[in-house]
Amino acid sequence: MKTTSDFLKMKKQGEKIVMITAYDYPAAKFSEDAGVDMILVGDSLGMVVLGYESTMPVTVEDMIHHSKAVRRGAKDTFIVVDMPFGSYHGDMNDTLKTAVRMMQETGADALKLEGGDEVIDVIKKLTSAGIPVVSHLGLQPQSAGVLGGYKVQGKTKEQAEKLIEDALLAEQAGACAVVLECIPHQLTAVVSEKLAVPTIGIGAGPEADGQVLVFHDLLMYGKHHIPKFVQGFAFVGDEVARGIEGYTKAVKSGAFPTLAQSFTMKEEELNGLYG
Ligand code: KIV
Ligand code: NA
C-alpha cells in the first residue's frame, strides 16, 4: 500500500496522484483493481448514495458504516475518510474522540476535514495524536449554506491570497495533502507550487498534483446533479436502466425464469401433491 511518503515522492517526481471516491465494497474493489492511488470515502455519500440534497445530514455512523465496507473491498489502498458536518467544530476532546473512533472502527489511513484557519487547531490535534489529516479548501460543501451555494471559490485576489495562506497553514499544522475544490486553475498552480505536500484537485484544473472525482459522477451512474467539471468515463447509468427494464419485461412476458434456471423434483415425489 502507498503511504503519505510515497505521495510526497510522487509529487516531487511529477507523477500524478489518482484518487476516486467509493462508498461500498464493489466500488472499492473495482478501484483497487484499477490501481488508483487513494480512495476517498467522501461525505458526497449523502448525495450520490443516500439521496440527500446536501452533505449536511450525513452522520459519523453513516461514514463509519460505509468506510468499513470500503476497507473490506480495498485492503491495500490508502483510504481517506471524510469527517462529516458538525463532527469537528465543537469541543476539541469530543473531536479527537470522534476521530479516533472513525480511524479504529474503519481501518482508515487518514481523515479529511473542510476549512481554513478555523480548523488549524483540529489538524494539529489529530496529527499530534497520530492521525494523518487531509485538508479540504476552496468550495466546501459542508458550508454551502454560508457560501451561498456551490460556487467557484478564490476568484478575487483577496480570496486567492486567503486560500494560499490557509493551505500553507494546513501544511504547517501537519496536513499530509490538500484537496482543492472548484477554484481557478491558475490558483491551483500557485498553491501546488508553494506546498511540499500534494494538492488533489476537483474542478481545479490540470495543475494539481493529483485529481479526485466522485465514483458515481465519472461513471455517469445515478440520478443526482452532475457538476460542469466532471467528465463521464463510462455510462453505467444507461446500462443499469437497460438491465432493469429488460428484467421487468422478461418477468411480465414470462421469458424469465426458464425451466433451465429452475430446480426440479422427481415425478414420484409429486404424486398426490396436486389437487
Ligand atoms: O465528499 C467528497 O466526495 C469530497 C470530494 C469531492 C473531494 O469531498
Ligand atoms: Na466531502
TrEMBL record:
<keyword id="KW-0808">Transferase</keyword>
<keyword id="KW-0566">Pantothenate biosynthesis</keyword>
<feature type="binding site">
    <location>
        <position position="43"/>
    </location>
    <ligand>
        <name>Mg(2+)</name>
    </ligand>
</feature>
<dbReference type="InterPro" id="IPR040442">
    <property type="entry name" value="Pyrv_kinase-like_dom_sf"/>
</dbReference>
<keyword id="KW-0460">Magnesium</keyword>
<feature type="binding site">
    <location>
        <position position="114"/>
    </location>
    <ligand>
        <name>Mg(2+)</name>
    </ligand>
</feature>
<dbReference type="InterPro" id="IPR003700">
    <property type="entry name" value="Pantoate_hydroxy_MeTrfase"/>
</dbReference>
<dbReference type="Pfam" id="PF02548">
    <property type="entry name" value="Pantoate_transf"/>
</dbReference>
<comment type="subunit">
    <text>Homodecamer; pentamer of dimers.</text>
</comment>
<dbReference type="InterPro" id="IPR015813">
    <property type="entry name" value="Pyrv/PenolPyrv_kinase-like_dom"/>
</dbReference>
<feature type="active site" description="Proton acceptor">
    <location>
        <position position="181"/>
    </location>
</feature>
<comment type="function">
    <text>Catalyzes the reversible reaction in which hydroxymethyl group from 5,10-methylenetetrahydrofolate is transferred onto alpha-ketoisovalerate to form ketopantoate.</text>
</comment>
<dbReference type="GO" id="GO:0003864">
    <property type="term" value="F:3-methyl-2-oxobutanoate hydroxymethyltransferase activity"/>
</dbReference>
<keyword id="KW-0479">Metal-binding</keyword>
<keyword id="KW-0963">Cytoplasm</keyword>
<dbReference type="GO" id="GO:0005737">
    <property type="term" value="C:cytoplasm"/>
</dbReference>
<feature type="binding site">
    <location>
        <position position="82"/>
    </location>
    <ligand>
        <name>Mg(2+)</name>
    </ligand>
</feature>
<protein>
    <recommendedName>
        <fullName>3-methyl-2-oxobutanoate hydroxymethyltransferase</fullName>
        <ecNumber>2.1.2.11</ecNumber>
    </recommendedName>
</protein>
<dbReference type="GO" id="GO:0008168">
    <property type="term" value="F:methyltransferase activity"/>
</dbReference>
<feature type="binding site">
    <location>
        <position position="82"/>
    </location>
    <ligand>
        <name>3-methyl-2-oxobutanoate</name>
    </ligand>
</feature>
<keyword id="KW-0489">Methyltransferase</keyword>
<feature type="binding site">
    <location>
        <begin position="43"/>
        <end position="44"/>
    </location>
    <ligand>
        <name>3-methyl-2-oxobutanoate</name>
    </ligand>
</feature>
<dbReference type="GO" id="GO:0032259">
    <property type="term" value="P:methylation"/>
</dbReference>
<comment type="pathway">
    <text>Cofactor biosynthesis; (R)-pantothenate biosynthesis; (R)-pantoate from 3-methyl-2-oxobutanoate: step 1/2.</text>
</comment>
<dbReference type="GO" id="GO:0015940">
    <property type="term" value="P:pantothenate biosynthetic process"/>
</dbReference>
<feature type="binding site">
    <location>
        <position position="112"/>
    </location>
    <ligand>
        <name>3-methyl-2-oxobutanoate</name>
    </ligand>
</feature>
<comment type="similarity">
    <text>Belongs to the PanB family.</text>
</comment>
<dbReference type="GO" id="GO:0000287">
    <property type="term" value="F:magnesium ion binding"/>
</dbReference>
